[in-house]
Design a protein that fits this description.
Blueprint: E1 15-21, H1 25-36, E2 41-42, E3 46-49, E4 55-58, E5 60-64, E6 68-74, E7 76-78, E8 83-85, E9 95-101, H2 108-116, E10 121-127
Antiparallel strand pairs: 1-9, 1-10, 2-5, 3-4, 5-6, 6-9, 7-8
């Protein structure tokens, strides 16, 4: 009997913004709340299963309405033995801001420019998630 393999490509429908900052996660979340007039709150840490059979635990701040969800996720997490990255190919990025929903609350380019103006943020970039090898790590 021959076996058939089903391959499914799961897409992530989100705008992903990479942020380099020396700020602690709670301070960055507070500054983002002030600028965007939202309420990012600390949510449960995300436990993400990596391809090498390890789990990475990263902090997660979340704001959610009926039509919009914003997550501020730390890139550097901890597995059982050492520090590791949610997106290993971008180790220089400290945080990812994921914006998902039917309609973005504002133009993503405008969000990037507002984030660049925050004190304590040194670099902001819109990330093309389709070009990342570890794009599946954003599915949670």
């Amino acid at each position: 009997m021959s076996k058939k393999k089903l391959e499914v490509e799961v897409g992530v429908e989100a705008a992903v913004i990479g942020v380099v900052s020396s700020l602690k996660d709670y301070k960055l979340a507070w500054k983002i709340n002030q600028v965007f007039k939202i309420e990012l709150i600390l949510d449960e840490d995300l436990v993400i299963s990596m391809a090498n059979n390890t789990n990475v635990i990263v902090s997660n701040y979340c704001y959610q309405t009926d039509f919009l969800k914003i997550n501020l996720i730390r890139n550097k997490g901890m597995d059982q033995t050492k520090a590791t990255y949610l997106v290993p190919e971008l180790p220089q990025i400290d945080f990812f801001m994921l914006i998902t929903g039917e309609e973005f609350f504002m133009d993503v380019e405008e969000a990037v420019s507002k984030l660049k103006e925050l004190e304590g943020v040194s670099f902001v970039q819109l990330i093309d998630i389709s070009k990342l090898k570890s794009k599946d790590n954003f599915i949670f």
